UniProtKB/TrEMBL annotation, chain A:
Keywords of the record: Amino-acid biosynthesis, Aromatic amino acid biosynthesis, Lyase, Pyridoxal phosphate, Tryptophan biosynthesis
Region (Disordered): 1-30
Domain Tryptophan synthase beta chain-like PALP: 70-388
Gene3D superfamilies found in the cross-reference section: 3.40.50.1100
Cofactor(s) the protein needs: pyridoxal 5'-phosphate
Modified residues (N6-(pyridoxal phosphate)lysine): 104
Catalytic activity of the protein: (1S,2R)-1-C-(indol-3-yl)glycerol 3-phosphate + L-serine = D-glyceraldehyde 3-phosphate + L-tryptophan + H2O
GO molecular function: tryptophan synthase activity
Protein name: Tryptophan synthase beta chain
Gene source species: Actinomadura luzonensis
Family, similarity comment: Belongs to the TrpB family.
TrEMBL record, chain B:
Assembly and interaction partners: Tetramer of two alpha and two beta chains.
Keywords: Amino-acid biosynthesis, Aromatic amino acid biosynthesis, Lyase, Tryptophan biosynthesis
Entry EC no(s): 4.2.1.20
UniProt keyword Amino-acid biosynthesis present: yes
Source organism: Actinomadura luzonensis
PANTHER family: TRYPTOPHAN SYNTHASE ALPHA CHAIN, CHLOROPLASTIC, TRYPTOPHAN SYNTHASE, ALPHA CHAIN
The protein's name: Tryptophan synthase alpha chain
Chain's gene name: trpA
Pathway it works in: Amino-acid biosynthesis; L-tryptophan biosynthesis; L-tryptophan from chorismate: step 5/5
Length: 401, 265
């Protein structure tokens, strides 16, 4: 079905979004810039992941968890009314309908299963919006593991609901008080903690960031979004593939998972970042949290604090594979403002009866803008990943609307 | 200060002192942490330091515990940058023992490894430690450092397998930085058992100077560390005092107690 659905066209490079090159490189990005104390732990994760993905037992167990617990496959929903308003044909890949309410669960179930296979009894995670923390706490409860989640104090305030959910699920939530008190600092703290806990714990990274093999492994666990969407598009769309594939980018995991399903097609790939957290669009080469990629920095090379109304996009960098896709010209990265995202969230709610996560609303905001200014030609088909639902953002929205 | 240290200066200096039977001491200071921070360098040397580790503060120190995080934050809050620290260093009298910069790789990449190493060299720095640059990623910086006459010291950890340890020891310059414990920088109640094991495993394959660091906080721990390795690095215990307001004279006294403990061995 997949082959037959392909439109003739220039064949994109076969290796795009395949295995990374030697030592976890995507072109000039990626790598394993971890403290020496973590290098062996990273190597063990890589070895376990390589074995697991070849093991039908692991693959079946994960597929079963995704189907029976996470509620996959998620639907591809045509956004009928909004499409008519915008003059493009918009399809939503509904990660908001997964158990726990965002795509984060896909990756976490994969990593939690891997941790079990490695004999680890505890998961360490960082979280911004709280969705990755909730997913980690959920998977830990499901598989009988412990979970410790690092979260910036500022995010703890604005995502109180998710903090409560994590605690209810039995996870320990550790407030991080350093720096911007958001995702960047929670990630640093989780890494520092992991250095002292490698023996019994698995660091469950929440996006396509971190030292090799994380950017690759997380993308592979999120690939299910793109693979499902590809098959669904093949069945639903006359052309088989959409003209445009759009997803929001924090670290970039839902976008990477989505793009992976379409990297070898003619679809144009667009990643949408928050204006104040545009690592791919405005970052410069650097190394942070274990990988070489694009990061927002000041003139002295200090990492700049990101600002977004969407806690999950409040990260000053982007995963290394996105830096590579951008350099190749295979994907483009654009930004939208907080206001545009909030307006888009309201518009989706009113037009389709779906309240999106503020992260996902960024992707929609760009679709709305591009449909208006010709960036998306009239009549074109657009697949957009709706990475999560807006329940967690209700209190933020309530203050604004 | 005009720099008088030729290529390989850190290693030559440390080897000579070690071979003369001396246990090595390398205290740490965060550059720019206080207005008169360069005065500490002199005080350290006068109290018997064999080299000084100079931290160039980074916004996201992923391998540092709370004390050095706070010191970095304090320095950055004062508006310092790598450029300014090196400029202040160049104006101060050289302490007379090698200076070894330590920082995260982002700051090295910012101007590029060549420019970064050249700037260190101009400011009179002779060595470099980059804790988030493991040996398998070190090629580009190792070449630039060698060309600039900067000794790039690599870190080894208790979790490092033996074959990799040998590679680290072989490719390290100046000394091998043996991380004593699986953890971040910061004071600890006792020297970890992993310190002795790691030093012994390293010693097995190299005669390059081995300095034990991370967690060494007291004269007793320094003495014990000096028994296992060629010497010790003392960071958080120094910086806690500096952050609490201790001046160069106070630190001179503290470093001197570490010196005496090492000399008793
Ligand atoms: C709903 C939702 N979408 C998107 C993101 C951004 O992450 P990524 O870019 O890794 O998909 C998050 C992160 O927390 C999220 O919760």
């Amino acid at each position: 079905m997949r082959e037959a659905s392909l439109r003739p066209g220039p064949a994109p490079a076969a290796a795009t979004m395949g295995e990374p090159g030697p030592r976890g490189r995507f072109g000039g990005y990626g790598g394993r810039y971890a403290p020496e104390s973590l290098v062996e732990a990273c190597r063990e994760v890589e070895e376990a992941f390589r074995e697991a993905r070849e093991d039908p037992g692991f693959r079946n167990a994960l597929a079963e968890l995704l189907a029976l617990h996470a509620g996959r496959p998620t639907p591809l929903t045509p956004a009928g009314r909004l499409s008519r308003e915008l003059g493009v044909r918009l399809y939503l890949k509904r990660e908001d309908l997964t158990h726990t309410g965002s795509h984060k669960i896909n990756n976490v179930l994969g990593q939690a299963l891997l941790a079990t296979r490695m004999g680890r009894r505890r998961l360490i995670a960082e979280t911004g919006a709280g969705q990755h923390g909730v997913a980690t706490a959920t998977a830990a409860a499901l598989l009988g593991l412990e979970a410790t989640v690092f979260m910036g104090e500022r995010d703890i305030e604005r995502q109180a609901l998710n903090v409560f959910r994590m605690r209810m699920l039995g996870a320990e939530v550790v407030p991080v008080t350093t720096g911007s008190r958001t995702l960047k600092d929670a990630t640093s703290e989780a890494m520092r903690h992991w250095v002292g806990a490698t023996a019994g714990s698995h660091y469950c990274v929440g996006s396509v960031i971190g030292p090799d093999p994380y950017p690759w492994m997380v993308r592979e666990f999120q690939r299910v979004i793109g693979d499902e969407a590809r098959a669904q598009c093949a069945a639903e769309l006359p052309a088989g593939v959409p003209d445009h594939v759009v997803a929001c980018v924090g670290g970039g995991s839902n976008a990477a998972g989505t793009f992976a399903g379409f990297a070898d097609t003619t679809a144009r790939l667009t990643g949408v970042e928050a204006e104040g957290g545009a690592g791919a669009a405005r970052g410069r080469l650097g190394v942070l949290h274990g990988c070489r990629s694009l990061f927002l920095q000041d003139g002295d090379g200090q990492i700049v604090e990101a600002h977004s109304i969407a806690a999950g996009l409040d990260y000053p960098g982007v995963g290394p594979e996105h830096a590579h896709l951008r350099e190749l010209g295979r994907a483009r990265y654009v930004t939208v403002t907080d206001d545009e995202a909030v307006a888009a969230a309201v518009r989706l709610a009113r037009a389709e009866g779906i309240v999106p996560a503020l992260e996902s609303a960024h992707a929609l905001a760009w679709v709305i803008r591009a449909a208006g200014d010709g960036g998306l030609p009239a009549g074109s088909t657009v697949l957009m990943t709706l990475s999560g639902r807006g329940d967690k953002d209700i209190s933020t929205l309530k203050e604004l609307l | 200060m005009t720099n008088a240290l030729a290529p390989g200066a850190v290693e030559r200096h440390l080897r000579a002192r070690r071979d003369a039977g001396r246990r090595l001491l390398m205290p740490y200071i965060t550059g720019g942490v206080t207005p008169g921070w360069t005065d500490y360098l002199r005080a350290f040397a006068e109290a018997g330091a064999d080299a000084v580790e100079l931290g160039l503060p980074f916004s996201d120190p992923t391998l540092d515990g709370v004390t050095i995080q706070r010191a970095s934050e304090a320095a950055l809050a004062r508006g310092v940058s790598t450029r300014r620290i090196l400029a202040e260093l160049a104006e101060a009298p050289h302490p007379g023992v090698p200076l070894v910069a330590s920082t995260y790789y982002n700051l090295v990449l910012h101007d590029g490894p060549e420019a970064f190493c050249a700037a260190l060299r101009r400011a009179g720095v002779a060595g470099l430690i980059v804790p988030d640059l493991p040996v398998h990623e070190a090629d580009e910086l190792a070449d630039a450092a060698a060309a600039a006459g900067i000794d790039l010291a690599l870190l080894a950890s208790p979790a490092t397998p033996q074959a990799r340890l040998a590679e680290i020891a072989r490719r390290s310059r100046g000394f091998v930085y043996a991380v004593s414990v699986m953890g971040t920088t910061g004071e600890r109640a006792a020297l970890a058992a992993s310190a002795a094991e790691l030093a012994a495993r390293l010693r097995h394959g190299t005669d390059r100077p081995i300095l034990l660091g991370f967690g060494i906080s007291t004269p007793d721990q320094a003495r014990e560390g000096g028994r296992h390795a060629d010497g010790v690095v003392v960071g958080a215990a120094v910086m806690r005092r500096v952050l609490d307001g201790a001046g160069p004279d106070d630190l001179r006294a503290f470093i001197a107690t570490l010196r005496r403990a090492l000399d008793q061995e």
